[in-house]
Amino acid sequence: MRSRTPEDLAGRCPRCLLREKACLCGCIPRVETRTQILIVRHAKERLRTSNTARVAALALAEARMLDIEAASDPIDPAPFREPGTWLLYPGQERTERPEPAPRKLVVLDGSWRQTRRMFLHMPALRGLPVLSLPPPAVAPARLREQQRPEGHSTLEAIAAAIRFIEGEEAARPLEGLREEFVRRVLEVRGRRHG
């Protein structure tokens, strides 16, 4: 069963939503990137303790979060039509950085089933160029089992995309944040990291 934060946030940090004893806020870096990130999050992910999109949005200066209830929800297509907007989604991996580099990445956040439905049923996503990442050479510690080899948590995928587009230096703080997030959540669950 997937963990869920109580609606009243009892015993939780109101910003990072982790238990107060594991609050991550003091470790969240401010990450400046050239690439804007628009996270389209399925509403069922909003209170999941394993949701890394929330942490990514807290860290990234150029991030915006859009919550949707269902893939069929009407949404304003304007943010998806801005020049230089790409979709980060599995499919055809790229081995070379796209030129010109994306100015904005749309990242779908949810389970495989939820994101697939978003991809198939959101007209605003149609026609966007797609950036796909290769599966990690070595799978890092994760809070959820991946159903597909190319699976990444949202924060992991964003960090990998930033590494691919902007280089290692821009991605390193996000990768460190992901490691710390996983470590703290596993510790609270009574499991050891690594």
The gist of it:
Helices cover 26% and strands 16% of the residues.
The whole-number mean of residue pLDDT values reads 84
Head-to-tail CA distance between termini: 22 Å
Beta-strand residue percentage: 15-25%
Helices and strands: which structural class? alpha/beta
Total strands: 5
Folded structure, characterized:
The chain is of the alpha/beta class and about 190 residues long. It has one domain (about 30-70, about 80-135, about 150-185). It contains 4 helices and 5 strands, in the order βαβββαβαα. A 5-stranded parallel β-sheet has the order 2-1-4-3-5. The radius of gyration is 16 Å and the shape is globular. It starts with about 35 loop residues before the first strand and ends in a 6-residue tail after the last helix. The model has no long low-confidence stretch (mean pLDDT about 85).
Main attributes of the structure:
single chain; 194 residues; alpha/beta; five-stranded parallel sheet; 5 strands; 26% helix; globular
